[in-house]
Amino acid sequence: MSELIGKKTWRRVDGVLLLDKSTGMTSNSALQAARRFFSAAKAGHTGTLDPLASGLLPLCFGEATKFSVDLLAADKTYEADLLFGIQTDTGDADGSVVRRCPVDFGNGELEAAMANFRGPIRQIPPMYSALKRDGKPLYDLARQGIEVERAPREVTIHDLQLLDFAGDRCRLRVTCSKGTYIRTLAEDLAHALGGLAHLTALRRTAVGALNVVDAVTLEQLAELAEETRGQWLLAPDTLLQSLPATALDDEAARRFMHGNPVSVMAAPGKCRVYGQGRLLGLGEVDDAGSLQPRRVVGGAVGCSGDERE
C-alpha cells in the first residue's frame, strides 16, 4: 500500500538497513535520507550516534520498527581517537577548549591505567548529553552555562584495547554495555593518568552481532537505482538473532497472531516466534511454558532463514 504525501509516494517497506553513517550529520537526518531512498512509509533507528561519530547505525523500516527497542540494550563496539593534554567543554572535538596540561606519561603507564577501566565501572554522565533534568535535556542547560549534579551510573567495559599510541594521541577499541559514554571514559582515563583528554574521532563498528563491515553508506545508496537498493535490506528478525527461536504449528500460530498465549516446550524468556513459514513476532515464555505474545508483526514479512535454530 502506498501513501501520497505531497509529491512523494511512500510505500510499505519491511526490513533492516545497516547504515554506515558519516560524520557531520545527525542520526535523524541520516534516517530521513535513507527513508527517502527506499520510499519507506515508516522508519526508525535503534539508538543515536552523535554528529561527530561515524559508523554503524541500524535503521528499521515498517514492521522491523517493532523490534528496534530490543537492540538498544545490546553491547556496542567503538574505535575512539583521544588527544591528551586538552579538555573541552563537551568532551569531544566539537567543544571549546577549557583547560590544557602537559602530557608526561608513556605506553606502560597508559596500559596500566586502562586495566582499571575493564569490567564494571561507574560513570558520571556528561552535561552535554540528552539526559533530562526537570524535563529539559542536560545539553540545553550546559549551553546556558548551568551545571547540575548527576548521579553516577554503573556500566560495563567488556573489552578495552590500545590500538595505537604516539605522543599525545591514542586510539582505543572499546566494547561496552548500554549507556556507556566514550567521552567520559576518555576523560576519566586521562584523569587516572593525572591529565586531561578529549575525543577527536569516534567510530561505532558493532552493535550486538551486527557489524559495520556489512553496512552501506548513503553515498553508495545514492548511486543505485531504487529497485536495486533492496539488496541492502535485511529481514526484520535480524534484530532478534540473539534470542532463541520457537516454531509454532498452524493452529498455535493463529492463536499467537490474535494475541493469545500458547503452550510450548521452550526455556523461559524472550524468543523470536515463527510459524506458517514466516516471522510472527516476539514472545516471552513463562515458567509454566506459556508463550505470551509481546510484539506481533502485521502481514507477511520475510525472515533471515535460520528460524529452525
UniProtKB/TrEMBL annotation:
InterPro entries: PsdUridine_synth_cat_dom_sf, PsdUridine_synth_N, PUA-like_sf, PUA_sf, tRNA_psdUridine_synth_TruB, tRNA_sdUridine_synth_fam1_C, TruB_C
Molecular function, one GO term: RNA binding
Catalytic residue list: D50 (nucleophile)
Domain tRNA pseudouridylate synthase B C-terminal: 183-231
Catalytic activity: uridine(55) in tRNA = pseudouridine(55) in tRNA
UniProt keyword annotations, A-Z: Isomerase, Lyase, tRNA processing
Pseudouridine synthase II N-terminal domain residues: 35-182
CDD domains (UniProt xref): PseudoU_synth_EcTruB (cd02573), PUA_TruB_bacterial (cd21152)
Domain spans labelled tRNA pseudouridine synthase II TruB subfamily 1 C-terminal: 244-297
Biological processes, Gene Ontology terms: mRNA pseudouridine synthesis; tRNA pseudouridine synthesis
HAMAP family in the cross-refs: TruB_bact
Family: Belongs to the pseudouridine synthase TruB family. Type 1 subfamily.
Protein's name according to its UniProt entry: tRNA pseudouridine synthase B
Organism: Candidatus Accumulibacter aalborgensis
